[in-house]
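Submission checklist for the structure archive. All mandatory fields must be present; incomplete records are returned to the submitter.

[x] Identifier: Lipid/polyisoprenoid-binding YceI-like domain-containing protein
[x] Organism: Pseudalgibacter alginicilyticus
[x] Residue count: 194
[x] Sequence attached
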Amino acid sequence: MWKFRKMNMTILSLLVLFIFTSGKTQAQEFNLNNQESSLKVLGTSNVHDWELDAENLSGKISFKNLNECLIEAINVVVTAESLKSGKSSMDKNTFKALKTDDHKTITFQLVEAKSVTSKGAGVFAVKSSGDLTIAGTKKRISLDFDVNTNGGKAILTGEKKINMTDFKVEPPKAMFGAITTGEELTIKFSIVLK
């Protein structure tokens, strides 16, 4: 009887240990590293092309299974007034267009990872949909990106074209309307999460 009870306790202990360790090895959460990440907004005008760099990013990614790149959640937040061009007058026009007095952040939240395809060596191509919120307007977008899960971190890289007017953002103007910007933007990102 004593041997039977001892064996049951050993099996139960191993089962509990397996449940806790398998959960830790399978489900993982990574936090965005602002210093190593980059997000650029590229646009055009009737004078020259322009670029904004996001200086303040935060966010998280959660995997159901890291080895298979089964993504549970992604949340990325950009501080709107951290988008800088290196020219204060352009930055002021950008902040006005983005209504940063009322809307401090730009956010992306994953809704669904529709497909994940392995490219080999810990790199995956992901097709997803998510909610992008700019200047207080939320819009569901499709977003394709690559995920590299090597080296104890996750690196998301990709780009997305958007139209400012879809988010009720009026393209900025300068010099009393003499300089006008195009409605279409390209967002390029390399997001490092550890």
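[x] Structure attached
Curator remark: The first helix runs from residue 2 to 26. Confidence is low (pLDDT under 50) at residues 14-25.
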